[in-house]
Each structure stands twice: as structure tokens, then as C-alpha cells.
């Protein structure tokens, strides 16, 4: 996969692009499919978002294009070296001014809706995916501006985490979702979980849809949904519920 292969090449003349995300990885193929379908693909096709996938290995000056080495001090596992990452970052910085250079790592700040909202308003974001035992600490100290985790578990690499982060950001950008209000009514936007939803048939083998949703009374439906959101949040995420009450 060539670098920038997920980028919409037709967008430049219209200057529609709200956000550019450049992802640095040693496994570019892992990032092909998340951007090749559904909402993310549409956002790229519409020119609202540009996504560049960059193979760190292509920047390695090692004759075997190595991107990792043994850890100083010993121990199992390889560490990603500085040089290819630094050169890749510098090449991109020569093209764009980045608001954030984010390193995906389980010891970063934990992703939440507020972080995604904030990042969705940026112009250029770079995301670095780690592998093996991670990147040389000096990359984190001198090149990265922010570190994000998608949860308290360890993935084999940062690629899936980068896809999760990108998805959560891109869907918030105006024009990406057909119904502009639907991102606002997502769970977590106001510290509340979303209410239950139903579609046809109204009765499936005796499993029926709550009558209120078929009443046509929009005010009552809105009140019911709000009540459902509140009780769901209280039951499933008491931490959010308490925060919402205070906020
Ligand atoms: N890389 C490996 N595990 C991760 C996680 N939980 N979040 C972000 N990046 C990661």
C-alpha cells in the first residue's frame, strides 16, 4: 500500500477538507479496511477528511530496512528505533503544520468523548502506532505531543487503536454523518448513555416495541427517551451519572 493511499486525491481544489490525519505504522495494511468502508470512506470520498497512511519502514536508512532493535539493558522484546520515525515525522512536518502528534499507547491518557470532540476541531493530526515493546522513549520525549490509550488492555500494536481514535473523531466532523444531529445524540455527548432504539416490525414473535414510541406524540417520546437515558446511565455507568449531575 502506498503512502497516502487512503487520501482523496480530488479534494485539494475544493479546499473542503476539515481535518487531515496522517498515521505512521510498520503495518500499513492493517489500516486499509477501516477507511475503505461506510462512514469513514464516505468522509474521505466527500473530501471532508484526508487520511494518509505512512509506512515507517520506507524511511529506514538501515540496509535491511530494519525499524527495531534490542532494548538497552536487555530483556525480551524489540524496541522501535528513532531514525525512521523521526525522518517520517520530519517529512510530514515539511508538508503540514500539525496540531498534535499522538502516540497510541496503553499508558497514555484514556480516550473519551471529550478528547474526540476536541480533536475533531483540529486541522492536522499525526498518529504514531507503536509495535513490539513500543518506541524508543526519546521519540516520546522529543517528538510526540500527546499520548492516548483506548483502554486498559494491551493490543499487539497501535494500529487498531489509531483506527478507533480516527473513527471517533471523523464521525463528529460536520457533514460526515447524514443526519447532523446524530453525533450529538450519541452516548457520552452529555454524560448520558443513549436510549434504546427499535425498528420494524412493531411486534416480533411477541417481542413488542414500547407503545409510547408508536404514539406519535413527539414530546412524550422525547421525555421517555430522556428518562431511559437517565436510568440506563444510572444503572450501567454510575460514575457518568454522578458526573452529569454535578456538571
Ligand atoms: N497499543 C497497545 N495497546 C494499546 C491501547 N490499549 N491503547 C492504545 N494503544 C495501544
Q: What ligand species are in this complex?
A: adenine
Estimate percent helicity: 25-40%
CATH superfamily of the largest domain: SPOUT methyltransferase, trefoil knot domain
CATH architecture of the largest domain: 3-Layer(aba) Sandwich
Give the DSSP E fraction (strand runs of 2 or more residues): 15-25%
Separate helix tally: 8
Q: Kindly name the structural category.
A: alpha/beta
Biggest beta sheet attributes:
5 strands, parallel
- The helix/strand series, from N terminus to C terminus, equals EHEEEHEHEHEHHEEHH
E-strand count = 9
Folded structure, characterized:
There is one protein chain. The protein has 247 residues and is α/β, with parallel strands linked by helices. It has two domains: 19-170, 3-Layer(aba) Sandwich (Alpha/beta knot); 187-246, Orthogonal Bundle (Trp Operon Repressor, Chain A), CATH 1.10.1270. Helices cover 31% and strands 18% of the residues. The chain is built from eight helices and nine strands. The protein has helices at 38-45, 82-93, 113-119, 137-142, 159-170, 181-184, 218-236, 238-246; strands at residues 19-25, 49-55, 68-70, 78-80, 100-110, 124-129, 146-149, 203-204, 207-208. A five-stranded parallel beta sheet has the order 2-1-6-5-7, sandwiched between helices. Strands 3-4 form a two-stranded antiparallel sheet. A hairpin with a 2-residue loop joins strand 8 and strand 9. The longest helix is centred in the last third of the chain and has 19 residues, at 218-236. The protein is elongated, with a radius of gyration of 22 Å. Residues 1-13 have low confidence and may be disordered. Residues 104-106, 130, 149-151, 153-155, 158, 161 line the site of adenine (ADE).
Amino acid at each position: 500500500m502506498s503512502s497516502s493511499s487512503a487520501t482523496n486525491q480530488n479534494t485539494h481544489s475544493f479546499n473542503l477538507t476539515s481535518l487531515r490525519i496522517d498515521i505512521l505504522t510498520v503495518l500499513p495494511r492493517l489500516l486499509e479496511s477501516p477507511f475503505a468502508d461506510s462512514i469513514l470512506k464516505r468522509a474521505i470520498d466527500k473530501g471532508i477528511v484526508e487520511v494518509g497512511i505512512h509506512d515507517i519502514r520506507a524511511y529506514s536508512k538501515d540496509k535491511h530496512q530494519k525499524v527495531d532493535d534490542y532494548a538497552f539493558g536487555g530483556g525480551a522484546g524489540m524496541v522501535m528505533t528513532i531514525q525512521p520515525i523521526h525522518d517520517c515525522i520530519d517529512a510530514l512536518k515539511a508538508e503540514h503544520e500539525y496540531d498534535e502528534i499522538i502516540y497510541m499507547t496503553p499508558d497514555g491518557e484514556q480516550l473519551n468523548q471529550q478528547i474526540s470532540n476536541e480533536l475533531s476541531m483540529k486541522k492536522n493530526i499525526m498518529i504514531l502506532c507503536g509495535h513490539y515493546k513500543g518506541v524508543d522513549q526519546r521519540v516520546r520525549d522529543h517528538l510526540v505531543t500527546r499520548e492516548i490509550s483506548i483502554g486498559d488492555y494491551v493490543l499487539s500494536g497501535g494500529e487498531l487503536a489509531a483506527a478507533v481514535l480516527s473513527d471517533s473523531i471523523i464521525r463528529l466532523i460536520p457533514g460526515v454523518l447524514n443526519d447532523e444531529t446524530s453525533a450529538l445524540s450519541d452516548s457520552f455527548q452529555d454524560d448520558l448513555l443513549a436510549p434504546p432504539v427499535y425498528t420494524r416490525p412493531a411486534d416480533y414473535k411477541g417481542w413488542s416495541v414500547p407503545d409510547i414510541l408508536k404514539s406519535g406524540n413527539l414530546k412524550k417520546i422525547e421525555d421517555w427517551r430522556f428518562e431511559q437515558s437517565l436510568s440506563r446511565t444510572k444503572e450501567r455507568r454510575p460514575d457518568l451519572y454522578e458526573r452529569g449531575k454535578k456538571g
